[in-house]
Design brief:
The protein is mainly β and 269 residues long. It folds into two domains: 25-197, no CATH class; 210-267. Helices cover 10% and strands 37% of the residues. The protein contains three helices and 20 strands. The chain has helices at 3-20, 61-64, 77-80; strands spanning 23-24, 37-41, 46-50, 57-60, 69-70, 88-90, 96-97, 108-116, 122-127, 132-136, 145-148, 156-159, 165-176, 191-197, 210-214, 223-228, 237-238, 244-246, 249-255, 262-267. The strands form five sheets. A nine-stranded mixed beta sheet has the order 10-9-12-6-4-14-13-8-11. A three-stranded mixed beta sheet has the order 3-2-7, with no helix packed on it. Strands 15-19-18 form a three-stranded antiparallel beta sheet, with no helix packed on it. Strand 9 (122-127) and strand 10 form a beta hairpin. The longest helix has 18 residues, at 3-20. The relative contact order is 0.15.
Length: 269
């Protein structure tokens, strides 16, 4: 194939890729909605919630929309964009009011409280316009309770990409707006939300604790490095690790998880 023809093929491929790539100004739902339906019973004075059977996936944008990127000006860019932290996320879970719910008592509001969940599962109040990405439910030191207006609400849930399963427990309850206190007996049963996490293929980093013993290179002639379990040991063993050069000095790298050891240098004529 002639060089000019190869160049034409490459240009056409780049044009096709650019045509499919998008700069996203909204956070995708990452699938169909999974709606817990909230209702109030005037007879019992309590909130109840019907949970969906679905278990949403928390998926990185690099997996769900591999050619797309977020607008760098968006407040969620630094957490969700693949060029930044690239966290896995979902907006599938959302709260909605059941059409058959009784009217709330006068001077009350609905609040949602997170009872438990892992620290690396973060939740954000999200709006596309104006662009809003505010930590809630204990994320980044916020309170674990949030006022809910009763309108459909889909917060963003995000975790580092991986292969773990995540779970968090919530409850929905009433607050007396006159006193600011929770209405006794109004709380729902605990609600367990589950997610599966999706990897984006990034390599796993391993951090190893090591001990580095170094000495000036000018004093190494006829000296050997030895170790023992105590300072007053009668038997010392030669350290057989091959020295390596670090910043111009010979040194040996030892396992930092080994049992307690003492080291000395011994002259060998």
């Amino acid at each position: 194939m002639k060089k000019s023809l190869w160049m034409a093929v490459i240009v056409l491929a780049l044009v096709a890729w650019n045509a499919s790539a998008q700069v996203l100004t909204q956070v995708p739902m990452q699938g169909s909605m999974a709606m817990p339906m909230v209702s109030y019973s005037a007879a019992s004075g309590a909130i109840s919630v019907m949970m969906p059977a679905a278990v949403p996936q928390l998926t990185p944008l690099l997996v769900s929309n591999p050619t797309n990127r977020f607008d760098p000006a968006a407040p969620w860019f630094s957490l969700l964009d693949p060029s930044a932290q690239g966290w896995a996320f979902s907006r599938r879970y959302g709260f909605d009011m059941d059409a058959n719910s009784d009217a709330l008592p006068a001077n009350t509001q609905i609040w949602i409280r997170k009872l438990s969940g892992p620290a690396d599962l973060k939740i954000y109040n999200y709006l596309s316009s104006p662009a809003t990405f505010t930590p809630v439910f204990g994320t980044d030191g916020t309170t674990n309770a949030v006022f809910w207006s009763g309108l459909m609400w889909h917060p963003v849930v995000a975790v580092p990409p991986g292969t773990n399963d995540f779970s968090a427990t919530f409850e929905v309850y009433l607050v007396d707006t006159t006193t600011g206190q929770e209405v006794a007996g109004s709380s729902s049963e605990p609600l367990v939300f589950n997610w599966t996490d999706v990897s984006d293929g990034r390599p796993t980093l391993n951090l190893a604790q090591k001990i580095v013993l170094a000495w000036p290179s000018a004093t190494t002639t006829n000296w050997v490095l030895e170790s023992a379990a105590s300072m007053d040991a009668t038997t010392w063993s030669s350290v057989t690790n091959t020295p390596v050069n670090v910043d111009g000095q010979p040194c040996v790298i030892l396992d930092g998880n080994a049992a307690r050891q003492f080291f000395r240098t011994r002259y060998m004529p």
